[in-house]
Amino acid sequence: MNAYETLSAAYDGLTRDIDYKRILDFLEAILRRHDKHPTSVLDLGCGTGSMSVLMANAGYQVIGADLSEEMLTIASQKAAHCENRPFFIRQPMQKLRLPMKVDAVFCLLDSLNYVTDPQDVRETMRRVYRNLSDGGVFIFDINTPHKLRAIDGQVFLDENEDSYCVWRVDFDVEENCCYYGIDLFRKQGALWQRSFEQHCEYAYEPSELTQWLQEAGFNKIVQFGDCSLEAPKSDEQRIYFLAWKE
Question: Which one, out of 8, 24, 146, 158, has a CA that is 20 to 30 A from the CA of 18?
């Protein structure tokens, strides 16, 4: 089963604590600090489109790209009443090909960790570079190896009025991957329907990502802590990267 094939319908309810406005404010603070003023944006790994819609409502011309057909269906429904409607496309990151170049690419909420083949991440960076306008920027975040190893063996629960989700975490040292076994229970009338998905995130080292960005052509790269304009700490759980195409 593909990641998010069944979880997509419950995703927004189970992630209601994500503060998309705070994340967008942080991205815009990064852009202002480095005198970047994009008008066209790619939301790479856009999921159900919450960030795409928020950016569109803020005045950006937005393209949203994702691999999950189920997530994109929800994103399109969510954006149906936007005056400045995002355009959604279904593509894997490593095969990214846009109808036009954009000023900025955002890849958020550890979407890049879900690309579990390092060669595909390197190709994704090359594709992003190719689809950026000159002077454009690539901003993405990752769950750090520190975080992914620290949550090994833990169990997380998410619930709302009609969904109950159990995440069981197993970090495979040999594969350098964090596996999430996800049991989702959704209310169907008086009964509950159970489904299961397995997700995987690769533990990428910031140093190797920096090297691959340079190899892709990006000539200036900066790292930030989680929604912080300061450099990341050694025990940071999430790191943001900013890379320039000059």
Answer: 146
